């Protein structure tokens, strides 16, 4: 059953997802509204019942891998009341954080920072609401200046909200290898994205001995390994990876310049083949790599096993999973040693898939628009290039790595990208009658706004 909300005035902007990208956009739109005296009527839809940033991965030992200065605003507006430094001040932890002497807060704290910022825009976000699809609305002449956003709430009823523009910022979707697709309902096999919740339901949480496989050789697998070692003494964990070693992330200063906002122009203006080559050249800055300090910790754990003569964990490098079978006794993985071709079957009590993320959710959501959006190529300002009949602007955030660079999926360019999209929206949509309609939560100019 679908309920239409067409008695409501169409939104100026509908945002799908309310993660860091669209929170950053909400801030940038608020700044635009303050400068112009005109605010866009905006609503965001997020399927989470409350805000959380990678909540399923927030183990105690997990630290942010980029500077806290790359928060939602500082690179664009250091004076913003939504900065990480102001968050620390409001939480009365600024001196304590300074005493730690780091640029890299734990992810648990950065999640709390994002929750704090999101709370100031709670009036604009419809939590617990999943966007099912986006449909075109054509007038008699065939021009599509409106879109219908079809949502589904906890009651299962589909509702429709009409909008003049759209921003999709739904993030990554856990990548499940084909061999494990048939076990998606098996509670013993789960993606790292849901690690915290799912590991708490395993027998090891009550101290029962378990042998657990960690599939993958990146940061997620490394963090899960450390957590299993430190938090679950009854667990024997095997890291299973195709490569020969854990590769360190290259975060040296010259290389890090590719994540600067100014580099987006460099990337976008290159020929397509040169863009692809740059992404390959710098792949080890972001994918299938591990923080060097974490590598040292893991190596130290494995070395102490050799010293003690008691092998608890395994490091199974150059292994390819050839087959997966499950029964009441566990999950059997058939591994091929890529060094000699020898096959070995090992039975595990649980398997954690630290196999990364796909970024294609925007394609599913926009599929009803068909040929109007073509192959979802974007302009420099992140607007999808569309058929001229579609005049309602559609923007995407976090899905433009091929054209805008490796930083597109990260926090590094988020504040500047948000301002670019906000400026584009105001060029197309800002009301011309000088109306002032606050789109969401308070700013630092409102008394008491940031005392939460």
From TrEMBL:
Domain of life: Bacteria
Pathway assigned in UniProt: Siderophore biosynthesis
Family affiliation: Belongs to the lysine N(6)-hydroxylase/L-ornithine N(5)-oxygenase family.
GO terms for biological process, alphabetical: intracellular iron ion homeostasis
UniProt KW keywords: FAD, Flavoprotein, Monooxygenase, NADP, Oxidoreductase
Protein name: Ornithine monooxygenase
Region (Disordered): 433-452
Native organism taxonomy: Bacteria, Pseudomonadati, Pseudomonadota, Alphaproteobacteria, Rhodospirillales
Cofactor requirement: FAD
InterPro entries per the UniProt record, alphabetical: FAD/NAD-bd_sf, Lys/Orn_oxygenase
GO terms, molecular function: monooxygenase activity
